[in-house]
Design a protein that fits this description.
single chain; 223 residues; mainly beta; Pectate Lyase C-like; 17-stranded mixed beta sheet; 17 strands; globular
């Protein structure tokens, strides 16, 4: 009998782990993820932060000044980086900023916003789809922002030190690429471009540069 009881307790524990942990965090309009953590973000009527996976207890979630911060607990300083075996699902009524850093992978689905800020740095990757009016994007130090499916009216974009930013703007843009950074602009908008020190700005869908500066190995091209 004791073995049967033990088996039931183990099964219950596994089921609880698989169902995830609901974190008591609310009141945020920004999401920042860092370390090698996978995060999914959606818009919904109520706040919800759920962490699932065998290493859910390694995930820290806290709110500071309207920002939900997601990071790894006791992240080792040395040794090879590895993906934390957990998934963080975030729901909020409205969002104005998303950021991924230090290897985090954040994907946001069906986002609708007036003003939105997107940032990726130090190997972080951010993917977004949806719509917005004004978009501000920064990609640096190997960070990647994939927002070509995030259809916005106006966009201000910068990419530096190997950062890559892909955006979609229908009216205006201001794009700067430096030190190996790359900016790709779809949507047919027009605006100002600056490419310096090996930076590259590529404009597609019939968009055009009103003012273009390309120096020290920088490049501005139109598809």
């Amino acid at each position: 009998m004791k073995y049967a009881v033990a088996s039931v307790l183990i099964a219950l524990a596994m089921a609880t782990s698989a169902s995830g942990e609901l974190r008591n965090v609310t009141g945020f309009t920004e999401v920042q993820a860092q370390d090698h953590i996978v995060v999914e973000v959606r818009i919904g009527p109520q706040y919800a932060v759920e962490v699932t996976g065998p290493e859910a207890n390694r995930i820290i979630t806290r709110v500071e000044r309207d920002q939900l911060k997601i990071s790894e607990r006791n992240r080792p300083w040395f040794g090879p980086d590895r993906r934390v075996n957990a998934l963080v699902r975030v729901t909020a009524p409205a969002l104005s900023s998303l950021a991924a850093a230090k290897g985090a992978m954040l994907t946001a689905f069906d986002i609708a916003a007036d003003d939105m800020s997107l940032a990726a740095a130090m190997g972080g990757e951010l993917r977004v789809n949806g719509t917005c009016h004004s978009l501000d994007v920064a990609a640096a130090m190997g960070g990647i922002v994939r927002a070509e499916s995030f259809h916005c009216v106006n966009a201000d974009i910068s990419a530096a030190m190997g950062g890559e930013a892909r955006v979609f703007a229908t009216r205006t843009f201001d794009a700067t690429a430096a030190m190996g950074g790359t900016v790709n602009i779809a949507g047919g908008a027009h605006g100002d471009t600056t490419a310096v020190m090996g930076g590259a700005v590529r404009i597609a869908d019939g968009g055009k540069s009103d003012s273009s500066t390309a120096v020290m190995g920088g490049e501005v091209t139109h598809d």
